[in-house]
Structure formats: C-alpha cells, structure tokens
Design brief:
This protein is mostly helical. The protein contains 39 helices and 2 strands. Belongs to the neurochondrin family.
Length: 729
C-alpha cells in the first residue's frame, strides 16, 4: 500500500471533523450510498493490517467529507475498534518511501473521527492515549509538512473532545497535557493558538489541579503573555487583558511579570477608551491588586500616578453605576472596582512606605468618599429579596473596608444605613452556609477564588466588625446599634466563632481572620462596658459571654502565639466581672477561680528582672513573650490591672486567692530586685493599685507583704498609699 493510499485513508478523520455540519439520518445515508454497507462489511471481516488498510481506503472513497453522521461514524468504529488504531499510534516503522510519522498520523485521524462521538471521547481506550497524544504536540519535524500539520490538528481535535467530557479535564491534567500545551504554545509552532485555547479551557475547568501539575510551565506561559502584553500596540492588547487573569497563579505572581503587566495596563488605562476596552483592564488590575496588594506597582512618581489613576477610574465607574437608579449595573466590573478602591484605602492609611504622597492621599480620600456615598445610596435601595445576591455582599464588603478606617465622614448616611447593615448581617449569620456560598460567588464576579492575598470573609458580620468598633465609641451610632440588636448578635457571633478555637478543633488550619475577628469583638464589648454598663447588666447574652470567657481563659493563656487574644479575653472578663460581681457564677465557683488565676498569670508574667552589663542592679524589662507585641498589648494590660484592682473589693474571695497564687509576694520581690529608676511611673501606679486593694481587703495579704519587705519597697518607689496601708494593723 502506498503513502498516497494511506493519506487517503487518513481523510476518514477529516470526514469526522466535518460531521457536525451535516447529520442526515442513517437510512438516508445508506439509500444514497448502498456501497458503504459492503465496504463496512469488508472492514469488519479484514484479517490483516493490509486488508484493514484496503477496506479503510474503500470506506473513505465511498463516504464524502461531511456525509458521515453520528450513527455511521459509530458503525465505522464498531468495524475498526481500538486495536488497529492502537498499533498505528505505537508503530515505529513506516512503509517504504513514507515519512516515519505516517502511520501515527493515520491512527490519530481515526481517533479524531471516533472522538466526535462524546461517548467514545470518554472511552478508556481514548483516555489512555492522552500521554501519547500529548507528546505529538511537542514532537520535532518539518513545520511545512502538510501531513504533520494534519496530524497536529487531529491531535488537538482529540484532546479538545476529551476536555469536553465531564471528567476529561482531570484525565488530561493527569496525562501531562498541560505541560505539553504550554511547551507547544511557547514554541510558537504550528497549532500554538489551539494550544492556548485548550489551556484556557483547562484552567477555567480545573485551575488548582492545573497549577499543581504544571506550575513551572504555566509560569513560563504567564511570562510570555506578560511580555506580549507589554509590547502589544494593536487590538491584541485588549484580548490579552481578558486572557491574562486566567493565567495568574494561585500562589504568587512572579515579580518578573509585575513590570510588564503594570506597563501594559498603564498604557491602556491612560488612553481614552470605550467601556469594552477599559473594563477588562480594570478587572485584570483588580486581580493583581487582590493577589499582590500594591507590590506590582513601581515605587516613585510613575507608580503613584498610576495608582491614583486606578483608584480614580474605579471610583468614577462605581458612581456611574450606582448613582443612577434604574441603570443596569455591570456587577463584575463594579466588583473589580471595589477591589481597586480597597487598595486605595490601604495605601491612603499606610503611614510608612506608601506609594502615595500626602496631597494624593487627600485627593483620593475625597474621591473615594463620593464613591462610598454611591455605595450607601445603592444599599439603601436594596430590598429583602436582594439581600442574598453576591453583589450586595461585595458592596457591604467595600463599605466595611471604608468604615474600618473612616467613620467621621458620611456620618449621617452611615447612621441611616446602620439598621439595614444589622439586619443584613443577622440574615447572613443565621444562614451561614448560604453566606459562605455568597462569598464564593462574589469572588467569581471579578476575582478568582484561588487568588492569593487577603481572603474574602465568608460572613458579612466579620466585614463590619472594625467599623462597628469605631462606631460604638460614638453616642448616636451606638444607640442605633443597641436598638437594632447588634450587641446580642455580636455575642452569638463571638460564641460561634469561639467554638472554632476550642479544644477538639485544629486551630492551625484556621484563617487569621477568625482570631482577628474575635479580638475585634472583644474591643467592641470593651467599648460597651465603658459606655453602656447598664446594657451589660441587663442583657442575658452578656452573662453567657462571661461564662465563656471564664471557662476559656485558663487554657488560652497556656497556648503559644495567642497572647494577644488572651489579653483581650482577660481584660474584657475582668471589666465585665466588675459589673456582674453579684452574679452567682462569680461567687468563688471553680470557673471563676480558674478565670482569675489565669488573669493573674497574664498580668504577672509581663515583666521580669534583667541584668545589665556593668551594673550590680537589674532593671525591669518586658518578658520575651510580651516584648514583640507590647505596642498592641500594653493598653490592654494596664486596663486589666485597673479592672482587677476594681474586682478585689467586690469579690471577697479574690484577695485570698491572689495570696495563694503568691502574686503579691512575687510582685514585691520583683520590685525589690530592680532599680526603681527602671520602673516607669505608670507601672508604679498600676502595681500600687493592685497591692493596695489586696492589702486593704485581707489581713493575711498585709502580713505577707510586710514579710516581703513591702513597707521598704513602698518607700523606695514612693508608693505612699501602700506604705500607709501596710503601716496600719
């Protein structure tokens, strides 16, 4: 059999390619071509490869391209089966005078014909050919060889057909197809555009798995696309804008891509564009902002101008979309603009190494204020039927980011919106599972869910906590929050989130946002303790909260790396104990004793005596665990000392318990071992407050302090109140 005959037989695959253009009924095909049945019979009865070749040639001559329908194609497969194509694909010897790939080309052509049938495309005998087919994409050969090009086209047809089946992408990824497609695209040989199209489909279907299997190759494609994007001067730059987000990795965007991506975006966004040209650029910028923060933007004048331009454009887009009632909102674009506004908020509030200069910050804050006003206007129009829509969630998110940093402006509008925000947060809290799904849908609007960077919290309440923390300090907003039931909701939320950190749960896998949310809740409760003590006394939810704090602190103070949360819990519990001192739960119960023992541990371990070179006397210094976070911790520590002092006269059992812990003795011992000049006045005041109340409350405490040279120490530190107290019987 000649090479010409083999090439003719190979046209059977091309007939399969055209099958979708014309699918006549089988009986019509047979009536027009009665010879086909005889040739199919010959194909079924063929005993050798030569006979099968001959029969295939006859079938090819009997069936014109475009005349094969699905049923006829299936009958050809039933006659040929997989055994013959399998041998062709693995054959290493070609007939005399033929190129070495001719038999493999015929095998691929047959598979391409069969893969036009979705059922056959998912057949195990096709799936196990994926590794072989993938190697054909990168095989070297004459780029002008028509037969080789035809073979490559058939290979892409096979792989594309497999990708279209339910489990096809997973099989292609496991078979090494992603790496082969990357190499084929980067080689820019024949069919490289088909490689890119198939890569896009696989990334859209199984992004995480693709990156896991072929990260180096995909990064190489990203670098190539970024370079093309930076160089593009024609309409291809807009196409690349839509393509590039799919190739941003779930781990980190390589720094070497930052310059090209930023330069390409700067050129696009700095021009006058229609919305269809500008919107993909805004969405790409949002993906980069979400993944890298501002790291992808260069430092200096050009970078600051570019960032200001980004935020400006985003704010204009948000206002245009949300201020006009009845306007159709492009939710994916506006959500991308929210991400860029969030980047602007972060940079405007950054004190060190900000890309923006002070005048730019002032200007951008003013512009963002107007955009946030539009967001509030939009949210005020949202009815109950829309509360579960992802775009509403995204709008609440950007408002939460703004309120976390700025509550003084738009105060009237914010107060007007607060009832809606409380109801919205309550609705999503009560349907937490759906809220989680909403968060995922928000990510899908404009930002890939696997993109690195700050995660999108799965509940609306966590988005609002920082802003509510600021608002509970102010009389007007606080009264609205209390009236709408926010404190009760926050207590329930805190208890729910606390469960995630309790024994039996793996806290190592918890996102940082859970612990940060708990700390912020504590700050809100601290504000309420100070500004609305009556609420703490009368609302039963705070009794439940107090019980949780008491049972949780003993184990929390023992856990490494959680000192800041322990400080929040201890201080909040001590302040609440002063208000709830008549509660039965605080009358020397095991839980209350355990809580105060843990609180003493937190307060007593903050400072140690540290020797100094060249001096006989040690100095008072922070203990290692406290030293690194003292800036965040010190206010809580001083407040905790003050609250403990206030609890002593209210709880008669507390002074004896403190004595048994040896805290007053060890505190005096510490003060006696260090230079008084090393102890700051505020520390002296805090220590004296505790010692005086313990001495006044209990005779045994006074005696223990005297035995520890308390009067002498009080004299050295000029603690007049303590000195007087210890001098009394």
């Amino acid at each position: 059999m000649s090479c010409c005959d083999l090439a003719a037989a190979g046209q059977l695959g091309k007939a399969g390619i055209m099958a979708s253009d014309c699918e006549p009924a089988l009986n019509q095909a047979e009536s027009r071509n009665p010879t086909l049945e005889r040739y199919l019979g010959a194909l079924r009865e063929a005993k050798s490869d030569s006979e099968q070749f001959a029969a295939l040639l006859l079938v090819t001559k009997a069936v014109k391209a475009g005349d094969i329908d699905a049923k006829t194609r299936r009958r050809i497969f039933d006659a040929v089966g997989f055994t013959f194509p399998n041998r062709l694909l693995t054959s290493k010897e070609a007939p005399d005078g033929c190129p070495d790939h001719v038999l493999r080309a015929l095998g691929v052509a047959l598979l391409a014909c069969f893969c036009s049938d979705p059922e056959l495309a998912s057949h195990p005998q096709v799936l196990n050919k994926i590794p072989i087919l993938s190697t054909f994409l990168t095989a070297r050969g004459d780029p002008d060889d028509a037969a080789r090009r035809s073979m490559i086209d058939d290979t892409y047809q096979c792989l594309t057909a497999v990708a279209g089946t339910p489990r096809g992408p997973r099989h292609l990824i496991a078979g090494g197809t992603v790496s082969a497609l990357c190499q084929a695209y980067l080689g820019h040989g024949y069919g490289f555009d088909q490689a890119l199209a198939l890569l896009v489909g696989l990334l859209a279907a199984a992004e995480t798995q693709c990156w896991k299997e072929a990260e180096p190759d995909l990064l190489a494609v990203l670098r190539g696309l970024s370079e093309d994007f930076q160089r593009a001067e024609d309409a291809s730059k807009f196409e690349l804008c839509q393509l590039l987000p799919l190739f941003l990795p779930p781990t980190t965007v390589p720094p070497e891509c930052h310059r090209d991506l930023q330069a390409g975006l700067a050129r696009i966004l700095g021009s006058k564009l229609s919305s269809w040209q500008r919107n993909p650029a805004l969405k790409l910028a949002a993906r980069l902002a979400h993944a890298c923060g501002s790291d992808w933007i260069p430092v200096g004048s050009s970078g600051s101008k570019f960032l200001a331009l980004l935020v400006n454009l985003a704010c204009v887009e948000v206002r245009l979309a949300l201020e006009e009632t009845g306007t159709e909102v492009k939710e994916d674009v506006v959500t991308a603009c929210y991400a860029l506004m969030e980047l602007g908020i972060q940079e405007c509030t950054r004190c060190e190494q900000s890309l923006l200069k002070e005048p730019q910050k002032v200007q951008l804050v003013s512009i963002m204020k107007e955009a946030i006003g539009a967001v509030i206007h939009y949210l005020l129009q949202v009815g109950p039927e829309k509360q579960k829509e992802p775009f509403v969630f995204a709008s609440v998110r950007i408002l939460g980011a703004w309120l976390a940093e700025e509550t003084s402006s738009l105060r009237k509008e914010v107060c007007q919106l607060l009832p809606f925000l409380v109801r919205y947060a309550k609705t999503l809290y009560e349907e937490a599972e759906e809220a989680n799904d909403i968060s995922q849908q928000v990510a899908n609007l404009a930002i890939s869910p696997t993109t690195p960077g700050p995660s999108w919290p799965g509940d609306a309440l966590r988005l609002l906590l920082p802003g509510w923390c600021h608002l509970t300090v102010e009389d007007g907003p606080r009264e609205i929050l209390i009236k709408e039931g926010a404190p009760s909701l926050l207590c329930k939320y805190f208890l729910q989130q606390w469960e995630l950190t309790s024994p039996g749960h793996d806290t190592s896998v918890l996102p940082d946002s859970v612990e940060i949310g708990l700390q912020t809740c504590c700050h809100i409760f601290l504000n309420l303790v100070v500004t609305a003590p009556g609420l703490i006394k009368r609302d039963a939810c705070f009794t439940s909260l107090m019980n949780t704090l008491m049972t949780s602190l003993p184990s929390l103070v023992q856990q490494q790396g959680r000192l800041l949360l322990a400080a929040n819990v201890a201080t909040l519990g001590l302040l609440m104990a002063r208000l709830l001192s008549t509660s039965p739960a605080l009358q020397g119960t095991p839980a209350s004793r355990g809580f105060f023992a843990a609180a003493i541990l937190f307060l007593s371990q903050s400072h140690v005596a540290r020797a100094t070179p060249g001096s006989d006397q040690a100095v008072l210094a922070l203990s290692p665990d406290y030293e690194g976070i003292w800036a965040d911790l010190q206010e809580l520590w001083f407040l905790g000392m003050q609250a403990f002092t206030g609890c002593v006269p209210l709880l008669p059992w507390l002074a004896p318990a403190a004595l048994r812990s040896r805290w007053p003795q060890e505190l005096l011992q510490l003060l006696g071992s260090v230079s008084p000049n090393s102890v700051k006045p505020e520390m002296v005041a805090a220590y004296q407050g505790v010692l005086v109340e313990l001495a006044r409350a209990n005779r045994l405490c006074r005696e223990a302090m005297r035995l520890q040279a308390g009067e002498e120490t009080a004299s050295h530190y000029r603690m007049a109140a303590l000195e007087q107290c210890l001098s009394e019987p």
